[in-house]
Amino acid sequence: MHRQHSKFDAVVIGASAGGVEALLTLLEDLPESFPAAVLIVLHLPADCRSVLASVLSNRCSLPIKEAQDKEDIVPGRGYVAPPDYHLLVEPDRSLSLSQDEAVHFSRPSIDLLFESAAWVYRERLLGIVLTGANQDGSAGLKAISEHGGTTWVQEPADALATIMPQAAIDAAAPDSVLTLEAMKQKLKRLDRAER
Protein backbone atom coordinates (compact mmCIF):
# COMPACT_ATOMS: atom_id res chain seq x y z
CA MET A 1 0.00 0.00 0.00
CA HIS A 2 1.14 3.54 -0.65
CA ARG A 3 -0.66 4.89 2.43
CA GLN A 4 1.09 7.55 4.46
CA HIS A 5 3.22 6.10 7.24
CA SER A 6 1.90 8.47 9.89
CA LYS A 7 -0.86 7.16 12.13
CA PHE A 8 -2.75 10.46 11.64
CA ASP A 9 -4.45 11.96 8.59
CA ALA A 10 -5.25 15.21 10.39
CA VAL A 11 -4.21 17.22 13.44
CA VAL A 12 -6.73 19.67 14.93
CA ILE A 13 -5.43 22.38 17.26
CA GLY A 14 -7.37 24.78 19.47
CA ALA A 15 -5.97 27.80 21.28
CA SER A 16 -7.12 31.07 22.78
CA ALA A 17 -5.27 33.56 25.01
CA GLY A 18 -1.53 33.21 24.37
CA GLY A 19 -2.23 31.06 21.35
CA VAL A 20 -0.21 32.84 18.67
CA GLU A 21 3.11 32.24 20.41
CA ALA A 22 2.10 28.70 21.36
CA LEU A 23 1.18 27.90 17.74
CA LEU A 24 4.45 29.34 16.45
CA THR A 25 6.42 27.26 18.93
CA LEU A 26 4.50 24.11 18.03
CA LEU A 27 4.50 24.48 14.24
CA GLU A 28 7.59 26.43 13.19
CA ASP A 29 9.84 23.35 12.89
CA LEU A 30 7.38 21.08 11.10
CA PRO A 31 8.67 20.18 7.63
CA GLU A 32 6.86 20.65 4.33
CA SER A 33 6.74 16.86 4.19
CA PHE A 34 4.54 16.64 7.32
CA PRO A 35 2.13 13.79 6.53
CA ALA A 36 -1.11 15.15 8.02
CA ALA A 37 -3.33 18.16 7.43
CA VAL A 38 -3.31 20.68 10.29
CA LEU A 39 -6.56 22.49 11.12
CA ILE A 40 -6.35 25.41 13.56
CA VAL A 41 -8.89 27.40 15.56
CA LEU A 42 -7.61 30.40 17.48
CA HIS A 43 -10.15 32.64 19.20
CA LEU A 44 -9.98 36.00 17.44
CA PRO A 45 -11.97 39.23 17.55
CA ALA A 46 -14.82 38.97 15.07
CA ASP A 47 -14.52 42.50 13.76
CA CYS A 48 -11.01 42.60 12.39
CA ARG A 49 -9.12 40.91 9.60
CA SER A 50 -6.84 38.15 10.86
CA VAL A 51 -3.16 38.05 10.01
CA LEU A 52 -2.71 34.71 11.79
CA ALA A 53 -2.30 32.66 8.61
CA SER A 54 0.36 35.01 7.24
CA VAL A 55 2.19 35.20 10.59
CA LEU A 56 2.31 31.39 10.77
CA SER A 57 3.18 30.87 7.11
CA ASN A 58 6.03 33.39 7.34
CA ARG A 59 7.61 31.42 10.19
CA CYS A 60 6.72 27.84 9.24
CA SER A 61 7.89 25.51 6.48
CA LEU A 62 4.46 23.88 6.46
CA PRO A 63 2.24 25.86 4.03
CA ILE A 64 -0.51 27.53 6.09
CA LYS A 65 -3.47 29.53 4.79
CA GLU A 66 -6.83 30.85 5.91
CA ALA A 67 -9.48 28.20 5.31
CA GLN A 68 -12.02 28.65 2.52
CA ASP A 69 -15.51 27.21 2.27
CA LYS A 70 -15.76 23.94 0.26
CA GLU A 71 -11.95 23.64 0.04
CA ASP A 72 -10.51 20.11 -0.07
CA ILE A 73 -8.29 19.20 2.89
CA VAL A 74 -4.79 18.32 1.67
CA PRO A 75 -2.18 16.47 3.76
CA GLY A 76 0.87 18.57 4.55
CA ARG A 77 -1.11 21.82 4.60
CA GLY A 78 -2.29 24.02 7.45
CA TYR A 79 -5.71 25.71 7.55
CA VAL A 80 -6.68 28.51 9.94
CA ALA A 81 -10.29 29.36 10.78
CA PRO A 82 -11.16 32.90 9.66
CA PRO A 83 -12.50 35.38 12.23
CA ASP A 84 -16.23 35.08 12.99
CA TYR A 85 -16.63 31.73 11.18
CA HIS A 86 -16.81 28.23 12.57
CA LEU A 87 -14.48 25.83 10.73
CA LEU A 88 -15.94 22.36 10.14
CA VAL A 89 -14.81 19.15 8.46
CA GLU A 90 -17.27 17.61 6.02
CA PRO A 91 -17.65 13.83 5.45
CA ASP A 92 -15.88 14.13 2.06
CA ARG A 93 -12.85 15.66 3.83
CA SER A 94 -13.51 19.17 2.65
CA LEU A 95 -13.85 22.28 4.81
CA SER A 96 -16.97 24.29 5.46
CA LEU A 97 -17.39 27.66 7.11
CA SER A 98 -20.44 28.51 9.19
CA GLN A 99 -21.78 31.56 10.98
CA ASP A 100 -23.99 29.52 13.28
CA GLU A 101 -24.34 30.66 16.88
CA ALA A 102 -21.18 31.19 18.93
CA VAL A 103 -20.12 28.37 21.29
CA HIS A 104 -18.60 29.40 24.63
CA PHE A 105 -18.94 32.97 23.30
CA SER A 106 -16.56 32.00 20.48
CA ARG A 107 -16.90 31.86 16.73
CA PRO A 108 -14.79 30.06 15.55
CA SER A 109 -15.40 27.28 18.06
CA ILE A 110 -12.75 24.72 18.92
CA ASP A 111 -15.43 22.23 20.01
CA LEU A 112 -17.22 22.36 16.64
CA LEU A 113 -14.02 21.80 14.66
CA PHE A 114 -12.95 18.93 16.91
CA GLU A 115 -16.38 17.25 16.92
CA SER A 116 -16.80 17.44 13.13
CA ALA A 117 -13.25 16.17 12.56
CA ALA A 118 -13.78 13.30 15.04
CA TRP A 119 -16.71 12.00 12.99
CA VAL A 120 -14.68 12.03 9.78
CA TYR A 121 -11.15 11.00 10.82
CA ARG A 122 -11.95 8.81 13.86
CA GLU A 123 -8.79 6.96 14.99
CA ARG A 124 -6.66 8.82 12.44
CA LEU A 125 -7.14 12.17 14.20
CA LEU A 126 -4.89 13.91 16.72
CA GLY A 127 -6.53 16.66 18.79
CA ILE A 128 -4.48 19.25 20.69
CA VAL A 129 -5.73 21.84 23.20
CA LEU A 130 -3.33 24.68 23.99
CA THR A 131 -3.39 27.76 26.21
CA GLY A 132 -6.67 29.62 26.68
CA ALA A 133 -8.99 31.30 29.15
CA ASN A 134 -12.30 29.50 28.63
CA GLN A 135 -13.59 25.93 28.35
CA ASP A 136 -13.83 25.65 24.57
CA GLY A 137 -12.18 22.45 23.34
CA SER A 138 -13.10 20.21 26.27
CA ALA A 139 -16.21 18.66 24.71
CA GLY A 140 -14.48 18.40 21.34
CA LEU A 141 -11.47 16.65 22.81
CA LYS A 142 -13.77 14.19 24.54
CA ALA A 143 -15.49 13.51 21.20
CA ILE A 144 -12.11 12.78 19.59
CA SER A 145 -11.36 10.23 22.33
CA GLU A 146 -14.80 8.64 21.95
CA HIS A 147 -14.21 8.18 18.21
CA GLY A 148 -10.83 6.51 18.75
CA GLY A 149 -8.57 9.50 18.12
CA THR A 150 -5.55 10.62 20.13
CA THR A 151 -5.64 13.64 22.45
CA TRP A 152 -2.91 15.90 23.79
CA VAL A 153 -3.25 18.88 26.11
CA GLN A 154 -0.68 21.51 26.96
CA GLU A 155 0.62 21.20 30.50
CA PRO A 156 -1.26 23.98 32.37
CA ALA A 157 1.90 25.15 34.12
CA ASP A 158 3.45 25.64 30.66
CA ALA A 159 0.48 27.67 29.34
CA LEU A 160 0.04 31.44 29.41
CA ALA A 161 -3.65 30.90 30.29
CA THR A 162 -4.39 27.74 32.26
CA ILE A 163 -8.20 27.55 32.20
CA MET A 164 -8.62 25.90 28.80
CA PRO A 165 -5.98 23.18 29.18
CA GLN A 166 -7.10 22.41 32.73
CA ALA A 167 -10.75 22.17 31.65
CA ALA A 168 -9.75 19.78 28.85
CA ILE A 169 -7.78 17.62 31.28
CA ASP A 170 -10.72 17.50 33.70
CA ALA A 171 -13.35 16.78 31.04
CA ALA A 172 -11.54 14.58 28.54
CA ALA A 173 -8.76 12.66 30.35
CA PRO A 174 -6.32 13.21 27.46
CA ASP A 175 -3.80 10.61 26.31
CA SER A 176 -0.89 12.97 27.04
CA VAL A 177 -0.36 16.22 28.98
CA LEU A 178 2.78 17.81 27.57
CA THR A 179 4.81 20.99 27.48
CA LEU A 180 4.90 22.77 24.13
CA GLU A 181 8.49 21.63 23.63
CA ALA A 182 7.56 17.98 24.23
CA MET A 183 4.57 18.30 21.86
CA LYS A 184 6.78 19.83 19.20
CA GLN A 185 9.23 16.93 19.40
CA LYS A 186 6.43 14.35 19.20
CA LEU A 187 4.89 16.09 16.19
CA LYS A 188 8.23 16.18 14.40
CA ARG A 189 8.58 12.43 14.95
CA LEU A 190 5.29 11.85 13.14
CA ASP A 191 7.04 12.93 9.97
CA ARG A 192 9.52 10.11 10.47
CA ALA A 193 6.70 7.59 10.84
CA GLU A 194 7.51 6.92 14.46
CA ARG A 195 4.73 6.50 16.98
Automatic annotation (TrEMBL):
Annotated Pfam families: CheB_methylest
InterPro entries, per database record: CheB_C, Sig_transdc_resp-reg_Me-estase
UniProt key word Cell membrane: no
Coiled coil start-end: none
UniProt keywords, alphabetically: Chemotaxis, Hydrolase
Catalytic activity: [protein]-L-glutamate 5-O-methyl ester + H2O = L-glutamyl-[protein] + methanol + H(+)
Biological processes annotated in GO: chemotaxis
GO CC, any one term: cytoplasm
EC number: 3.1.1.61
Active-site residues from the entry: S16, H43, D136
Class of this enzyme: hydrolase
Keyword Transit peptide (UniProt): no
Domain CheB-type methylesterase: 4-187
An example Gene Ontology molecular-function term: phosphorelay response regulator activity
Domain of life: Bacteria
Gene3D superfamilies noted in UniProt: Methylesterase CheB, C-terminal domain (3.40.50.180)
Protein name: protein-glutamate methylesterase
Source species: Noviherbaspirillum galbum
